[in-house]
Amino acid sequence: MGLDRESVVRTALRLLGEVGLDGLTLRRIAAELNVRAPALYWHVKDKRALLDAMAATIFTDALAGLELPLRGESWVEWTAETARRLRRATLRHRDGARVLSGRYLDNACAGRPMELALRTLCDAGFSPREAARGVTSIYAYVQGFAIEEQAARQDPPDEQAERFPLAAQARLDLLHADADARFEHGLQLLLSGLRLSRYGR
Q: Any residues with CB less than 8 A from the CB of 175 and at least 6 apart, and which?
């Protein structure tokens, strides 16, 4: 099979699971594909372009087949499930959140999902500006939460627990709480805030 952009990106995502973002290099990808590194430059000009392409693939895979809400499905339910899909897809890849964070997603990748999300909120009564702010806030929450999940580590004992008991308890709760439940709690807070901003209840 000939070398193409898709095979380069898919190979990079597979290697990401083995070596992590810090260990991922064009040279390593080239070796995996049994080509010399310069051959990759026909498809990705540098590592930044590669990461943009990897982010686009994660995002596209996450929201493949996305459509407007079904009859009877509320904008809250639709938005929540879309956020869950994006988080699940991000977590399927080691350092997936770091790959997505701050990357350029062009309209070919993000245009349709963004249009559907904005249309869903506008149809629910939000202005285009309110919808845009709501959608981007939820996207930022998903990515920020996923980054923290993938960077999670076991912290050493808190030597300041007696001095800052509430902070120590909160820290323990965060370390041992179910990640899905914490994500859902924060997501519902955001959606409740959106609802209040629009409907006042």
A: 154, 155
Whether 180 and 114 share a structural domain: yes
For residue range 155-166, what is the model confidence (pLDDT) as tens digits? Answer: 566 677 778 888
The CATH number that applies at residue 111 is: 1.10.357.10
Q: What pTM was estimated for this model as a whole?
A: 0.86
How many CA atoms lie less than 13 Å away from 23 in the CB half-sphere? 10
Cα–Cα–Cα angle for 9, 11, 12, nearest 5°? Answer: 65
Is the distance from CB of 58 to CB of 99 less than 8 angstroms?
Answer: yes
Q: What's the number of domains the chain is made of?
A: 2
Between the alpha carbon of residue 176 and those of residues 4, 142, 172, the distances in Å are 44, 20, 6
Low-confidence ranges of the chain (pLDDT < 70): 1-2, 152-158, 176, 200-201
Residue 114 CB partners (closer than 8 Å, separation 6+): 135
| pLDDT reported for residue 80 | 98
Contacts of 69 (CB under 8 A, 6+ apart): 75, 77, 78, 120
Decide: 52 and 8 in contact? Cβ < 8 Å: no
Q: Tokens for 80, please give them.
A: 């929540």
3-state class (DSSP) for residue 132: helix
Which structural domain, as residue segments, surrounds residue 14? 1-45
CATH number of the domain where residue 7 is located: 1.10.10.60
